[in-house]
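Let's practice the habit of predicting before peeking. Look at the sequence and jot down your guess about where helices and strands might fall. Then scroll down.
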Amino acid sequence: MRLAESYVMLARYNRWMNEKLYETAATLTDEERKKNLGAFFGSVHGTLNHLLFGDRIWLRRFGVTDAGEMRAGSAAYGQDLFDVFAELRSERAKTDVVVDRWAKSLTDELLVAPLRYSNQGGKTFEHPLHYAVQHLFNHQTHHRGQVTTLLMQLGRDPGVTDMIALLRQPDWATT
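Done guessing? Here is the structure:
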């Protein structure tokens, strides 16, 4: 498997897990979703907002023009992009389509090329693109793990979260 192909798989896993988590979170009341349970971003809603915020920031750094059309930059780190859950869910789904399409455009040559960007504090970094792409997917997994814990604390089980469960499905690439 080429390096680029692994990111197509990770993008698909990202979308699958987001769909599962949003479906489970939709069974909560707004008050439950926004209840501060002591997580780094406080609540299920806050953590889901952070994930969307982070994905859109990284997509812009990667030069994904679709990400420029999506609201992200006006919010500060740690602030919610969307207060209304239905809007957050819709925007998450749109972003996952962009991530899927972008991942399919990656080549091994692009992934080893240098990426130069500035963080929100203005500090500039440069390293191979694949370092940041790996970070994007690792960041998603990390915070989705937090969301699954928060959902369980609220009495909701999102089910199996292992990537291998997705890959065992014969049509995993298209579901």
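How did you do? The first strand starts at residue 114 and ends at 118.
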